[in-house]
């Protein structure tokens, strides 16, 4: 099973033929700009479609702190996304309180462990909406 940098590399090299399907779910690649370094960082994340948008969850396995990629997109919401061979620019935003429950259900249907992660931490785990910019 692919993880981390190897996951990103194989996904990019094969247009997602390797890496899109992962552990009985699907992943996309999210590229953010580092809030301190200004460097690009690419992270494989579980996703689901929500209308025309894509959803990802900033869970970090229930860690007390948000993942770095989430902190980056809060500062700079202009991101790049790759879903299989489709690469596009997107605008990232955190789901609002009114819309989050439905989006959370969509994401826990594909990765039930998100509910366990939420129980492990005091912070509300964000659902991130990726809206295609092109």
From TrEMBL:
<dbReference type="GO" id="GO:0005886">
    <property type="term" value="C:plasma membrane"/>
</dbReference>
<protein>
    <submittedName>
        <fullName>Nitroreductase family deazaflavin-dependent oxidoreductase</fullName>
    </submittedName>
</protein>
<dbReference type="Pfam" id="PF04075">
    <property type="entry name" value="F420H2_quin_red"/>
</dbReference>
<comment type="similarity">
    <text>Belongs to the F420H(2)-dependent quinone reductase family.</text>
</comment>
<dbReference type="GO" id="GO:0070967">
    <property type="term" value="F:coenzyme F420 binding"/>
</dbReference>
<dbReference type="InterPro" id="IPR012349">
    <property type="entry name" value="Split_barrel_FMN-bd"/>
</dbReference>
<dbReference type="GO" id="GO:0016491">
    <property type="term" value="F:oxidoreductase activity"/>
</dbReference>
<dbReference type="InterPro" id="IPR004378">
    <property type="entry name" value="F420H2_quin_Rdtase"/>
</dbReference>
């Amino acid at each position: 099973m692919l993880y981390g940098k190897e996951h990103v590399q194989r996904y990019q090299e094969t247009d997602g033929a390797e890496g899109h399907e992962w552990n009985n779910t699907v992943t996309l690649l999210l590229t953010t700009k580092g809030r301190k370094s200004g460097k690009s960082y690419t992270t494989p994340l579980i996703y689901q479609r929500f209308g025309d948008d894509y959803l990802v969850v900033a869970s970090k396995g229930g860690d007390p702190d948000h993942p770095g990629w989430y902190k980056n997109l809060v500062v700079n919401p202009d991101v790049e996304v790759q879903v299989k061979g489709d690469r596009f620019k997107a605008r990232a935003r955190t789901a609002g309180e009114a819309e989050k429950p439905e989006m959370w259900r969509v994401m826990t249907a594909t990765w039930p462990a998100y509910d366990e992660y939420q129980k492990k931490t005091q912070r509300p785990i964000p659902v991130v909406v990726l809206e295609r910019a092109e």
